[in-house]
Amino acid sequence: MRRALSGILSAALVLGVGELLAAVVGPDSSPIVAVGSAAVDNTPAGVREWAIDTFGTSDKLALFIGMGVVIALLAAGAGILERARRPIGSALFVVLGVLGVLAAISRSGSGSIAALPTVVGVAVGILVLRSLVDRADPDASEGFSRRRFVMLAGISAAAAVATGAAGRVLGASTRAVTQDRNAFTVPVPDSPAPPVPAAADLRLPGLSPYVTSNAEFYRIDTALVVPRVNSQDWSLRIHGMVDNEMTLTLADLEQRVSIERMVTLTCVSNPIGGDLVGNATWTGYALKDILAEARPQAAADMVLSSSHDDFTAGTPLDVLMDGRDAMLAVAMNGEPLPIEHGYPARLVVPGLYGYVSATKWVTDLEVTKFSQARAYWTDRGWSERGPIKTACRIDTPVGSKDVQAGTVMIAGVAWAQHRGISRVEVRVDDGPWTETTLSDEYSRDTWRQWSYAWTATAGQHRVEARATDGTGEVQTDVRVDTVPDGASGYASMPVTVR
Ligand SMILES: Nc1nc2c(c(=O)[nH]1)N[C@H]1C(S)=C(S)[C@@H](COP(=O)(O)O)O[C@H]1N2
Ligand SMILES: [Mo]
Predict the structure, then answer these.
(1) Which CA distances in Å does 375 have to 235, 288, 308, 388, 446?
(2) pLDDT per residue as tens digits for the range 349-383
(3) Residues with Cβ within 5 Å of ion ligand 2?
(4) pTM
(5) What residue's CA is closest to ligand 1, atom 5?
(6) Is 198-380 CATH 3.40.50.2000?
């Protein structure tokens, strides 16, 4: 009996600790929510119908009660086994933990960090399981102390309840925003993005897909805890050197003409060969129209955008007004903005690095002057202006994997937003530059893929690539680091051919 109780209390602590950490990491990383959701997703249709027929709208509650019973039985078994055949009980915790981790990672868009609540929870659970079981038996080597066991069991139970409750309370705002986002309606664009022609995506093995999925899209920001902004509470204030100060809510935006555009975003911190670049379809509202309505004064030359979490970016006013598709975006690849990509609204400006333009969770636009205002990163040694440099990347082959002699596809992506890409060349071992095949151009604001069939001979080689932008300018071979205005230099890959 005490052994079984030891197992159940330890399991409760796993879930409590998991719940508490999930409040920070994200709601989908909670072991109980993740496993429950995985169970729902994998329930055969017949069973689901039966559950809905039987439990009606309480089907979710029934699921959690059912899960609780199963977990309690398994945990009781683990407690008994941990005594009889150590460490089988702990091993059972680990197996259940692995299931929880797999469920959490596959559900949440946040990658391996989603494993954290379950991993820490299971570690704590096993420690407590062992100390409880050691004290559960009259014949235990340390000697039986009923009082000791009761005390430890009481503390564990209290800790399980406290962590679980704290997790639920702390996680409430997160869950509220997740629900708010699930109910958010993506505007049907008045001006839709042209479809992606088949020949824009070469679909080669190892080559980045033309459109980057939301889950794969790089994420860069200064937020330790992702800002949770409810769409009902959100508004955008436009003020400063304007004749018509205004404040827009999402309801106001719904009355406006919406646009949908594909734009490639790039981070100034992206090193040569790095992956801080991604291409997505954005839906939102043209910034030039919003700003025109606010009527900027003649002396203004910068828009200082601020976010809910007090990040700031300074964007040249003329770039926002020159007719390119600078926008206030509310959707990414047809979905409401993912919370970590700025829900409910962010800026997207073709041609500029993110740190001077792509403010997520944006709430404020102050029209001002470069001579008067500083932004978050320009205050920390980065350049005031951030036009994107022409660059390319070799996606395949990768230096860490040897290739077979014969025909080897070299392929990658190239970008020079708002100037476009007109050519990509490769050379092997300082040989002559050879032109590659480019995927169809979608627009000047999006990257292009390129490929080249190389006849590879055995040995060590170095493959390099360089891009030419739409104005005919070849990217520079001068290698500079990312600070202060972005990396430059040819893409380069060591390749071993067997
Ligand atoms: N609020 C906020 N917005 C931000 C940032 C930030 O730190 N905070 N980082 C910027 C930077 S440096 C980049 S490169 C882009 C990245 O956008 P993504 O995370 O959606 O890819 O967001 C920009 N917007
Ligand atoms: Mo960035």
Answers:
(1) 21, 21, 15, 18, 26
(2) 999 999 999 999 999 999 999 999 999 999 899 99
(3) 220, 267, 354-355
(4) 0.81
(5) 221
(6) no
